[in-house]
Amino acid sequence: MSKLPHITTSIFSKMSLLAKEHKAINLSQGFPDFPIDVKLKNIITQKIQEDTHQYCPASGHPELLEEIAQVVKKSYQREAHVEKEILVTAGATQAIFTAIQAVVHTGDEVIILDPSYDCYVAPVLLCNAKPIRVSLGSNFMPDWESIQKHVNSKTKLIITNNPHNPSGRTWGEDDMNQLKLLLDEFKNLHLLSDEVYEFITFENKHLSAHLYESLHKKSIIVSSFGKTLHVTGWKIGYVIADEKIMNEIKKIHQYMVFCVNSMSQHVIGAYLSQDGLKDIKILYKKKRDIFRKGIEKSRFKLLPCEGTYFQTLSYEGVSNLSDIEFTEQLTKKYGVAAIPISVFSQDNQHHKMIRFCFAKENSTLKTASDLLCKI
Ligand SMILES: Cc1ncc(COP(=O)(O)O)c(C=O)c1O
Q1: Which of 59, 61, 136, 295 is 20 to 30 A from 372 via CA?
Q2: Beta strand pairing status for 190-194 and 219-224?
Q3: Ligand 1 atom nearest to CA at 194
Q4: Can you state the percent helix, strand and coil of the chain, rounding each to 5?
Q5: Is the CB of residue 209 less than 8 Å from the CB of residue 171?
Q6: Bridge partners of 353?
Q7: How far is the centre of ligand 1, averaged over its atoms, from the C-alpha of 227 (Å)?
Q8: What is the pLDDT of residues 250-276, one digit of tens each?
């Protein structure tokens, strides 16, 4: 008998395959199509020749852990303890899976805010726990009254995602204050803060859970080098949590992967020590603006994009199809692949919205927006 009878192939694999079959421009799955930094490439060449091919310590290559601590300190003024509070993971996906296994027990409840990225539900189900899907407001911002109504003494975890995939919205101070109040009120409640797009925000400053000391003891904060350094295929990220929670996470991590592949750890450690993090905001802001400008004159309606590399569009007034049918039509007939938003929610209700990834060459964005303008 299947442990996950309702879980099917992810929409990202499905749409990427459809795009390939129909030779459509693939703006569905979230991955960059442009080259990585030459400096990163040069470090790879150099590190391949060095002794970087054996197991790293289970928590991570010491140089990389140090560099992560520096990034967190510089970005959020938090002093994360290098040995006790940081863990390098095989992407954010493994970080999230491991964290959920570590803190969630049979019968616990976990709040997931819909529309939500697709890697939260399965690990909760595997803990024999209950995902409680709470809808974000129609503007994709948290509805605190509704969230409050769904939290009780059985709620172990709330999973937040800011900047938000798929909507591209970012949380404000009020949201962070509400979150703090909620965690204060419910002693059993912990926070899993998925911040894989932490360095991709535009007009607004990213309000990380790292910034609030009162959240540190109860939070697990996840990031992804895949997103930050445009190396999604390397599957490397990290998680930061208070020592007590981290000890539990590490117990599971050591039997899932033991340690993340050594080469990427050495390479990223050296890269960060030389360069720090480049301001990727500038790069993505430019791409967002090119794409938005290209779409402006189309029949689609642009929704706000404050962070991430996703732009959501409404096709109300363009088609009456469901968003799943519409993205299929878009791929097959018009040559651009996107993701329907309804698949990110439990109720699968569609509101005529689709998501495009703009982490693409400017020329790709231009061609795609020209095609969309013809509809
Ligand atoms: C919100 C969110 N969380 C987690 C992940 C997974 O990141 P990784 O590729 O590092 O596992 C993604 C990837 O698209 C994402 O968008």
Answers
A1: 136
A2: parallel
A3: 3
A4: 45, 15, 40
A5: no
A6: 314
A7: 8
A8: 999 999 999 999 999 999 999 999 977
Q: Is the dihedral of CA 248, 250, 254, 260 positive or negative?
A: positive
Domain ranges across the chain? 11-36+279-373, 38-275
Burial class (CB in 10 A: 0-12, 13-18, 19+), 152: exposed
Pair of tokens at residue 107: 């019968």
Angle between helices 262-275 and 62-76 (to 10 degrees): 40
The two most distant CA atoms of the chain are separated, in Å, by 59
- Which pair of tokens denotes residue 154? 């059985």
Among 235, 165, 234, 160, residue whose Cα is nearest residue 201: 165
| Domain 38-275: CATH class, spelled out | alpha beta
Q: What is the pLDDT of residues 285-316, one digit of tens each?
A: 999 999 999 999 999 999 999 999 999 999 99
pTM, to two decimals? 0.97
Cβ atoms of residues 59 and 83 within 8 Å: yes
Task: For residue 172, report the distance from its CA to the centre of ligand 1, in Å.
Answer: 22
Contacts with 150 (C-beta within 8 Å, 6 or more apart), sequence order: 111, 132, 134
**The CATH number of domain 11-36+279-373 is 3.90.1150.10:** yes
